[in-house]
What does this fold into?
Amino acid sequence: MSKVIQIENFEAEELDIYARTREIQLLNRHEPEKGIFIAESPRVIERALDAGCEPLSFLAEKRHLEGEEKKLMERCGEIPVYTAELSVLTKITGYQLTRGMLCAMRRPVGRTATAVCKGARRLVVLENVVNPTNVGAIFRSAAALGMDGILLTPDCSDPLYRRAIRVSMGTVFQIPWAYFGKAEAWTRTLHKMDFKIAAMALSKDAIAVDDSRLLSEERLAVVLGTEGDGLAESTLSHCDYQVCIPMAHGVDSLNVAAASAVAFWALKNF
It folds into this structure.
């Protein structure tokens, strides 16, 4: 049974992970064995637990100590549950909690890009997508629309940022993902594993996202670029297809998260 602790001292060291440590320090991507992430809301916490993530502590609104949330805490054994009224928790964290519950968890051991590719038929590649909200939304769409995995270039936002996890509704724990290595020629990696690469790009040579050539590919990786500049020219030059979404009313582009959902639906393999 978890140990419930009433918060009396805002400066208590054990609250640092919720109140004072920067998220990028917590996540510690370069030393992942030391990393911690924060899961927010019972649904997201449940998905993280189902994926085998190790819980360290809870920060919970008093009224969430009973009901379904209590069952969730009971799954976690004897870990501390720090509690207070919602107004106090908001002062500690600096933001309004969704469903009044946070859980600090150990960062899971990361997969390799090769492991994510193995057995996959439809992959997503994110190149330098730095907005956690967009990363979370792309993960949710990819999981819902049958993509088999997600690969990220090193400069992408971490999918384990609190906001990315929340926007994804916990699907970051359901769909396999990995970062490419810093010096990895990732287009070559994908080609070696028999993937054709389709770059989402606004170019005069782009084919429509529902083109039969794309649908007939046995293994296809769909590449989405950074929110502002799109994909690098060096990336485009190594892709097999450049792909666009036909649009009306003179609109030339969609937000990267919206575009991803359209592309995944058109190219799904279920």
Summary: Residues 132-144 form the longest helix (13 residues). The domain at 113-267 is CATH 3.40.1280.10 (Alpha/beta knot). The chain has twelve helices and twelve strands. Residues 193 and 221 are 11 Å apart (CA to CA).
